[in-house]
Amino acid sequence: MRTLNTLNIDQIRQSELHALDALLDLCGRHGLRCMLAYGSLLGAARHQGFIPWDDDMDVWMPLYDYNKLVRIILSGEDGLPKPFRLAATEIPNEAGPFHIWFAKVYDMGTKVVQDNLTKSVSIDEGCWVDVFPYTTLASKDEWEAVRDRFSLLQWRTEQAIFAPKKQTTPLRTLRTKVAAAFMRRKGYAFFLNKYRDLLQSLPPKAEDPYVFDPAAPNALFDASWFASTAALPFEGREYPVPQGWEQVLDAFYGDWRELPPPEKRVGHPFVATLRD
């Protein structure tokens, strides 16, 4: 429900830019790499800013830098300034277990309610930046050995945290509801812990030729594209991107320079407001 405190798309984006700046400042103080990913990388390359219908931001971090970031937050050695906070499966949360397989930086001066989360998810959210840790792999055989495991854990988590979608037939709808009920009884934290453990069992190695983000398990990138960072303009500023950003976009999106059809130009199902 929209109120006088409801944020418009420009206000949401400004909140997310401030959250990203806070994250990059923290990473800079500790020599941690962080770069635009997915829709934010595409937006920088094609629009020099947000994709016109996008309402969140995405960044990548190498797994070893991501782990350092989590340790810094947990130790209290350093942190994000208020009102920002890092949420992840590794970080205890008073409201309940964190609900997704990658991290988020929240602006807690705002409040976000997602319409599609089930009642089993107890999480206090603000406007966010998604933080995706990536690792490296030695071969395509290794990729083929792990990608389906990550896909299955993501699917099971989705069944536990998101309201079931209506399917094309009544039988498929029933099957989806039954699967979702089973996953919710098991608890989404069970699947997320398995996901986290699997990722941590794949530490990055300098000699590996491939970069792999398990959040997008069907994609495999050349490690040389991530060997260092470049910079692209984004909403009047410059942000770090993989040095091979064009190759990354080609590999992940194909013909990324062309706009998708109108029916695919959609954002997330949430309402964001200012906190009192």
Automatic annotation (TrEMBL):
Q: What is the official name of this protein in its record?
A: LicD/FKTN/FKRP nucleotidyltransferase domain-containing protein
Q: Which residues form a coiled coil?
A: none
Domain LicD/FKTN/FKRP nucleotidyltransferase: from-to ranges: 27-254
Sorted alphabetically, the Gene Ontology BP terms of this entry are: glycoprotein metabolic process
Q: Which PANTHER family match?
A: LIPOPOLYSACCHARIDE CHOLINEPHOSPHOTRANSFERASE LICD
Q: InterPro entries annotated for this entry?
A: LicD/FKTN/FKRP_NTP_transf, LPS_cholinephosphotransferase
Q: Which organism is it from?
A: Muribaculaceae bacterium Z82
Identify one Pfam family in the record: LicD
> Could you name the domain of life of the organism this protein comes from?
Bacteria
